[in-house]
């Protein structure tokens, strides 16, 4: 690879907006939000994590995101501790528990936001009833993160917050 091409790739990566989405288990809401933002804008660097990560992404979250053309089958849950030393343009919590138990970030964080969603994994009933709850949460995430993208992410303000 030529020096010029390496510089272009490095500049592109350095200019990407970095977004971390947090929830408790990192198996439902945060994975849906991650997939939507990546689908919306391939120029974003989006990761998701949990304060108490599950072992696997929830199968109904996988199903409803595949319905919407945004597969998450290969996205595995991660622990937020993996990301606390990195710099982020946005750290966004999507459940109240993650907002309350979010660790202090050593890296710089420009914006801390919260968009709360009910945990669809807590839905009761037959499989189709649970799927409907997952679809409602997915659709709410898409609407909310689209508004977030249009209002904040397209035009990131200058300045870092040193801590959450």
Description:
With 164 residues, the chain is an alpha/beta fold. The chain has one domain: Rossmann fold. The protein has five helices and four strands. Strands 2-1-3-4 form a four-stranded parallel beta sheet. It is globular, with a radius of gyration of 16 Å. The N and C termini lie far apart (39 Å). The model is unreliable at 4-12 and 157-164 (pLDDT under 50).
Ends distance: 39 Å
User: Architecture, CATH level 2?
Assistant: 3-Layer(aba) Sandwich
**Mean pLDDT, all residues:** 86
**Unreliable spans:** 4-12, 157-164
Number of strands: 4
User: Mind describing the biggest β-sheet?
Assistant: 4 strands, parallel
| The CATH top-level class label | Alpha Beta
CATH topology: Rossmann fold
- Estimate nothing, just give the exact number of structural domains: 1
- SSE pattern, N- to C-terminal: HEHEHEHEH
Q: Helical percent range?
A: 40-55%
Q: CATH homologous superfamily, by name?
A: Response regulator
Radius of gyration: 16 Å
Coarse shape: globular
Number of helices: 5
Structural class: alpha/beta
Q: What proportion of the residues form beta strands (DSSP E)?
A: 15-25%
In short:
The protein is α/β, with parallel strands linked by helices and 164 residues long.
């Amino acid at each position: 690879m030529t020096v010029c091409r390496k510089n272009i790739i490095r500049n592109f990566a350095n200019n990407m907006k970095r977004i971390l989405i947090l929830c408790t288990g990192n198996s439902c809401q945060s994975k849906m939000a991650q997939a939507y933002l990546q689908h919306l804008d391939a120029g974003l660097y989006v990761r998701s994590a949990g304060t108490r990560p599950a072992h696997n992404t929830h199968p109904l979250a996988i199903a409803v995101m595949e319905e919407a053309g945004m597969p998450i089958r290969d996205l595995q849950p991660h622990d937020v501790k993996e990301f606390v030393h990195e710099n982020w343009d946005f750290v966004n919590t999507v459940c109240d528990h993650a907002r309350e138990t979010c660790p202090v970030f050593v890296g710089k964080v420009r914006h801390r936001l919260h968009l709360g969603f009910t945990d669809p994994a807590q839905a009761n009933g037959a499989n189709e009833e649970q799927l409907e709850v997952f679809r409602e949460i997915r659709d709410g995430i898409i609407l909310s993160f689209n508004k977030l993208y249009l209002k904040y992410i397209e035009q990131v303000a200058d300045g870092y917050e040193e801590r959450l």
